[in-house]
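Milestone M4 deliverable, item 7.
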Amino acid sequence: MKPEQHIAPIWTSCQERYPDEVAKMIEATRRLEDAHRVAIMPDVHLAGGFCIGTVLATRKLIYPSAVGSDIGCGMLALPLRAKAKRITPQLARKLLALLPGLVPAKRQREAILNLHLDKPRLSDHALDHSLKDIGLKQLGTLGSGNHFLELQREDGSDKLWLMIHSGSRGLGQIISEHHLAEATDRSFGRPYLDAEHAQGRRYLQDVCLARAYARLNRAVMARAVAFALDELAGIQADWSGVIHTDHNHVRKETLHGERLLIHRKGAAPAFDGLLSVIPGSMGTASYHVQGRGHADALRSSSHGAGRRLDRGTARRSIGVEKLKRAMAGVWFNEAAASKLRDEAPSAYKDIDAVVRQQHDQIKIVRRLMPVLNYKGA
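Output delivered:
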């Protein structure tokens, strides 16, 4: 007789019934070789290899697809020393006109990366060349898709905040593709690397650098916008209150006294006391939260609202006028509305409901609403 296959225990705060394809992918994740524990966040939705909103704990195997290609993608929130009413119609129009140059979706120019990352070295010569080529040219760019920049007002106080959602740009994708091609072993079709072997160690090294690059990328954009706000309106940033975290990574963490590899794909760390950001979609609320360190949830929370409609369905079912109605009262780049339909609020789950489902994982610190939203179309 064959020994009974181990199926990793699962924990979830999701109160909805999973769509069939999501349920199948979650079940396949639980059956993976070396899967120790799995936690599913309420923003879970379908993606390649592993669902977004999945946290996987293993003892020694690394699954690059359980991190995703945008390694280090995450959030930056920066308090501004001003009330939201300072964003007048005239200032909002100026900012929207300046942002494509300040925070472009893509950029082809040189930047001095070595001043910011201490002697960056990726594990392979070709990857290192990509850092010097793509990494240098894309530093300080936002990207497109669900990446965005927002000025927000804090509920209650009307305090003004800047929020940025972006990642490692093309660098993370190149790193992911390189190591997936090197992975010769598979479990249920999912390639993996062994953290105790050279291949696995090289991947972990590259993940660390991609996360550092993504963090720097968000900081560069935040400084550019902060400078513009100061120059245009005398609005200054309070850098002592910045919140900065990412939600696509794998790293070693101690849980229940055991050293584990925690993979997060579209899931934010929620360690006890850790401040984090859970954004909504364009036009909806976002939250600053504090982790509760819930061990069964693998000390994690959702990374956002989560998609309700895939991009194709959203484009077919959401018109420009519907998007504009949903964005009423929020300044945004209306000229690009046709290209932003798949990012409309109705394409996403209700962020307030998603956050309410996580009372065991997080404590709400503040709720914020958008004043101005900018996306690279």
